[in-house]
Q: What sequence folds into this?
């Protein structure tokens, strides 16, 4: 297993890589564009070449990107089209410099619209992967804390989405310890961790868990609040 911090790539991939090395990490995470907007920095071929040299010299990787928080594939509005476009674009951009995976919050809808929201997420992911067949970067659905309207907050919901999408090779799951704790999994004991893993093995399959976000939770067990301690 490789461990690294979440770093900004605003000054370039090579600089982020050297910062990761200075911190004793052997990989790092990054936002694929403005996390609360749509602006994306151009990553020219010269930077990609410099990054590949840095990666060869340091052994860093595989990198894990995170898509903007504004994406909501459960939305019935133009946000659905926008989200699909951004995910397609960022899968392609990140594949160009060899990122291992991109993490996506599945989406959110009101309780009355949850079933239709899940259908839109499934349709969106199918369309994205269908247009990204040559892309090696994985798309990972992140398990959520269960705040009002959030989709993907339970193993059964994530597993059900994967089943409906067809479980192609290009998709997996990212688990976040803050989200797991807030959704009700007590990770403070070995038995609690084992119980959580059993649930995900049953509903999702642990082979589909391709990345972990390690965070403490600001609120208590089962709070359903996505508030990281740091």
A:
């Amino acid at each position: 297993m490789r461990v690294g911090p979440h770093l900004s790539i605003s000054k370039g991939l090579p600089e982020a890589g050297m910062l990761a090395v200075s911190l004793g990490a052997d990989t790092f995470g990054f936002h694929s564009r403005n996390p609360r907007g749509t602006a994306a920095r151009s990553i020219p071929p010269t930077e990609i070449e410099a990054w590949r040299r840095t990666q060869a010299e340091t052994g860093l990787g595989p990198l894990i990107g995170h898509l903007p928080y504004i994406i909501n594939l459960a939305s019935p509005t133009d946000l659905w089209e926008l989200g699909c476009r951004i995910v397609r674009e960022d899968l392609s951009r990140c594949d160009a410099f060899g990122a291992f995976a991109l993490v996506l919050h599945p989406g959110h809808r009101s309780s009355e619209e949850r079933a239709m929201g899940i259908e839109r997420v499934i349709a969106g992911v199918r369309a994205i992967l269908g247009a990204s067949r040559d892309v090696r970067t994985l798309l990972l659905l992140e398990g959520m804390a269960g705040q009002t309207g959030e989709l993907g907050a339970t193993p059964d919901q994530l597993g059900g989405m994967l089943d409906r999408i067809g479980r192609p090779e290009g998709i997996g799951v990212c688990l976040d310890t803050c989200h797991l704790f807030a959704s009700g999994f007590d990770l403070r004991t070995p038995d609690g961790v084992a119980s959580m893993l059993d649930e995900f093995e049953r509903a999702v399959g642990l082979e589909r868990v391709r990345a972990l976000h390690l965070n403490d939770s600001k609120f208590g067990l089962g709070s359903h609040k996505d508030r990281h301690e740091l």
Notes: Helices lie at 13-22, 45-58, 78-96, 114-130, 155-165, 177-183, 190-203. The chain has a mean pLDDT of 95. Residues 78-96 form the longest helix (19 residues). DSSP finds seven helices and six strands in the chain.
